[in-house]
Amino acid sequence: MTETLLLIGGIDSGAGAGLLRDHATALSLGLSVRVVVTALTAQNDCGVRSVNFTNPTMIAAQIVAAVEAGPIAAVKIGMLGNAGIVRAVEAALPNCPIVLDPVLSSTSGHSLLDPSGLLCLRRMIPKVSVLTPNLPELALLSGQPQPQSAELAESLARAWPIAVLVKDGHGAGHTSTDYLFQPNCPALTLPAPRQRQSRRGTGCTLATALACGLAQGLSLEAAARKAKLAVGTYLSSIVPAVDCHDKSVDSSA
């Protein structure tokens, strides 16, 4: 039987990230999908033009409809946007593995979670199974400066009583090493050659692939390794160049 993944997040009109990237990843890994739309965005590789958040009542109704349609094997949460949405999602989550990819800003730097939403998200973290922040997100969620070493990142990640997969996509060097921290377990390192090109949607791909592995019954370690491979496959695919000549796009956000 094909397992079903529930995807919660925003629609990226440029199709580079968000639910569309999540959906493509899940289908490529053999899962069926149900979605909950938290926001509509007008954006592309140059920046974010506009964001329109879904009413929290509608979000709760979408989750109820998804759960009513049949068993959910795992949940992947992305963009939430504000406190009302965070609370609506938290209150309606099914009892299954939950992967939270804390979308705090776009690749271009546009804020995608307001301050009150950040506070609510911090309170929600202990209720999920796995958190997948990059280094800037880890710092914001912890309320601490961005860690400059793996040891400092580990000290921040282990403050939560859950598994934390820290992404090194914003790092430097020839190798990109992600770290999986689990309570009462040694850290698991996940190295891979650092790709030269930058591409939106890598965080979405990693978190969704991780959720897919958990939905299919893999251990967290095996699911993390499989997710890292999925990101490598995504980054190695051919990407057409984007000409950001239209200066009206919000590239400074």
N-to-C order of helices and strands: EHEEHEHEHEHHEEEHH
Distance between the termini: 44 Å
Would you count the extended β strands for me?
A: 9
Question: Shape from CA axes?
Answer: globular
Helix content: 25-40%
**CATH third-tier fold name:** UDP-N-acetylmuramoyl-L-alanine:D-glutamate ligase
Parts with pLDDT < 50 across at least 5 consecutive residues: 247-253
Biggest sheet overview: 9 strands, mixed
CATH superfamily: Ribokinase
The helix count comes to: 8
% residues in beta strands: 15-25%
Instruction: Give average pLDDT, whole number.
Output: 91
Largest sheet strand order: 3-2-1-4-5-6-7-8-9
Radius of gyration computed on alpha carbons: 17 Å
Taken together, the total number of domains comes to 1
What is the name of the CATH architecture?
3-Layer(aba) Sandwich
Q: Class, according to the CATH hierarchy?
A: Alpha Beta
> Structural class given helices, strands, pairing?
alpha/beta
Pfam families: Phos_pyr_kin
Protein name: hydroxymethylpyrimidine kinase
InterPro entries: HMP/HMP-P_kinase_dom (IPR004399), PM/HMP-P_kinase-1 (IPR013749), Ribokinase-like (IPR029056)
Keywords: Kinase, Transferase
